[in-house]
Design a protein that fits this description.
This protein is of the alpha/beta class and 218 residues long. It has three helices and 14 strands. It is globular.
């Protein structure tokens, strides 16, 4: 599940309203995967890049963009969300009475991302197609977002988000547990919420129902 933001024109006024929401609820966007829906806005690529940058400056991490011309996306912009078919691509019974059966397309392949270097402060690593393994540490001020599970073989001091593609079975594991924020499948806890549990020790994080559980890593 993801939160969908659909800007309206003028975009500057819409950003002001977003700022007002952030003042009322400072943690509203913390740990939430966000899809940006720009259908009907008619934004050029430069304006779209600027909008994503404006949202990033507000700590809103856009993981996908809907409603944009595919030619506008590419390097420097999030991809379109995976899955689904346009409405006009869904055949009606009348249209398929004598047609061959429709074979659904195969799901996107599950791919793991392995990082041989530490994730530095200010960096954001986004990989929604599978697990992320960090062979080093995740620094304070860094953010790692995985569609599957997240494994950190060093210290975890930044923001760790697993299951961002809608996977409640995802886990977070690390050798030294000192995060600023952890989240799985849209549920999150900040460092203040976590308290001293497993602080500085090896840990694993998983969901039990609607609760985030932190336990030791044997």
């Amino acid at each position: 599940m993801a939160l969908v933001l659909a800007p309206v024109l003028p975009v500057s006024d819409w950003l002001d309203e977003l700022d007002a929401l952030a003042r009322r609820s400072p943690a509203f966007f913390v740990g939430r995967p966000v899809i940006l829906d720009v259908a009907g806005l008619g934004l050029e690529r430069e304006a779209l890049v600027a909008l994503v940058a404006d949202l990033a400056a507000r700590d809103v991490a856009v993981m996908g963009i809907e409603g944009a011309d595919p030619g506008q996306l590419g390097a420097g912009l999030p991809p379109p969300p995976a899955g689904g078919r346009p409405v006009d691509a869904v055949p009606t019974p009348e249209a398929t009475a004598d047609a061959a059966p429709v074979v659904p397309s195969a799901p996107a392949p599950f791919r793991s991302l392995i990082l041989d270097t530490p994730v530095r402060s200010g960096q954001t690593i986004l990989h929604l197609e599978g697990d992320i393994t960090v062979m080093g540490s995740v620094a304070s001020g860094a953010e790692v977002i995985a569609g599957g599970s997240l494994h950190v073989y060093g210290a975890l001091r930044g923001r760790a988000i697993a299951g961002a593609a809608g996977n409640p079975e995802a886990r977070i594991t690390c050798r030294r547990f000192e995060p600023e924020l952890i989240a799985i499948d849209g549920l999150y806890r900040t460092a203040d919420d976590l308290g001293p549990v497993q602080r500085g020790l090896p840990a694993q994080v998983r969901l039990e129902g609607d609760a985030i559980k932190v336990a030791g890593l044997d």
